[in-house]
Amino acid sequence: MQNEKKKKILIVGSSAKEHALAIKFSQYDNIEKIFAAPGNDAIKEVAEVVDIREENIEELLKFVIENEIDLTIASSETAIKNDIAEVFQANGQMIFAPSAQSSKFAINKAFCKKFLYKLHIPTPRFGIFEKQQAACDYLSDANFPVVVRSEETINGKDRLVCPKQNIAQIFVEDLFARDEKKVLIEEYVYGHEFTLYVITDGYHALPLSAAANYKFLSEGDGGLLTDGIGAFAPDYKISNEIIDHIMKNVVMNILNALERQQIAYLGILGIDCVLKNDGKYSVLEFKPFFQDHDCACMLELIEENLYTLFEACAVGSFADDYEHIAFSDNSAISCVISSQSEGKIISGLDMVESSQINHFNTHKNTYLEYETPKGKALTVTACARTLSRAKKKLYDDIEQITFDGKKYRKDICAEAN
């Protein structure tokens, strides 16, 4: 084992989750070199950044071949949509990512809803519209609140929870004015939101953990609905019985349907759900990898070597090599810090010792100081034996980080004392 050749990997993406992945892989003895394309300034601290955009699949393939990369991990939704998995596999390159065709249900929200309906998987009542008037007519008989959203994610500006018809109608008009081809309207379901993550080679699937989700921008679930602003894992509100039920009736149902179409899904799959007051769950949507706000949270808890795990899926030995995934007994909690404007100098990062900091699109100025983008800037993640201890570490460390216009939720896992 000691004489085994060390590996070179390429991580495709440029956000907080790619930063978290790079840090995780940098801790393994079996990794010789980490590349990231296109990466960001923070990723440069643990990996070599390659100036190739996520959608330039042929350039990425050329780089991988020329640099003898052992494994590529495509966590970028852009790269997945551009079918990096299919191109790499066709050229004999090992990659951990789903194909564009197999992951369509996890990326295209309108297709996702039709897929769920076809497979009889519980999901909120919805309508999909290609014409503005038809969408507005639907709203006249809808049960409010509703979520109005675009077919695919648009920089966090793709969805809005609308308590009244007039608000929903204005947002529908706005989406069609942006030249959206389809608009999705679904009933807003009250309850506890969580994501169950699984890893699969397309045939065999194992649960990783459930992460509790915080998607609204402000405390008490107020403000805008985002794709994620905080999380904790494992989610103690989600029982093993619920996880087993989702694995059997959602995950395997989907994998079997894809297998029948000969488009096996390989990679990480996140199932976004809401646990309703009656104890039943409803599936909202899917994610083709860990999300920016919870990636470090999940990686803190996984005790398997990710290279070995991802490689097993890519080469087809996953079912033989793994009966379960080893997880630590710790708890982890993450919080996203946002900035109201760009170009603000971030201070106090060097004062944070017990939490992990992951960067979105911050950049270093000429004085090597990190400056904020507008919007999501950092994810801070703390890990401890108990959730209450992890929460205290998290918020103590967040206080060390300062910049003008700093905003974050102060009630992540508020019930943990």
Number of strands: 20
Unreliable runs: none
CATH class of the largest domain: Alpha Beta
Proper CATH architecture of the largest domain: 2-Layer Sandwich
Number of helices: 13
Q: What is the averaged pLDDT score?
A: 95
Terminal-residue CA separation:
44 Å
Strand fraction: 25-35%
- Helix content bin: 25-40%
The SS-based structural class is alpha+beta
The backbone outline, from C-alpha atoms, is globular
CATH fourth-tier homologous superfamily of the largest domain: ATP-grasp fold, B domain
Radius of gyration: 21 Å
CATH domain fold name of the largest domain: D-amino Acid Aminotransferase, Chain A, domain 1
Largest sheet: 9 strands, antiparallel
What would your notes on this structure say?
The chain is globular, with a radius of gyration of 21 Å. β1 (7-13), α1 (16-26) and β2 (31-38) form a beta-alpha-beta unit. α7 (132-139) packs antiparallel against α8 (165-177). The protein folds into 4 domains: 7-96, Rossmann fold (3-Layer(aba) Sandwich), CATH 3.40.50; 125-187, ATP-grasp fold, A domain (Dna Ligase, domain 1); 191-227 and 235-316, D-amino Acid Aminotransferase, Chain A, domain 1; 331-407, Phosphoribosylglycinamide synthetase, C-terminal domain (Glycinamide Ribonucleotide Synthetase, Chain A, domain 4, Alpha-Beta Complex). Strands 10, 11, 12, 13, 14, 15, 16, 19 and 20 form a 9-stranded antiparallel beta sheet that branches. A 5-stranded parallel beta sheet has the order 3-2-1-4-5, sandwiched between helices. By secondary structure, it is of the alpha+beta class. It is built from 13 helices and 20 strands.
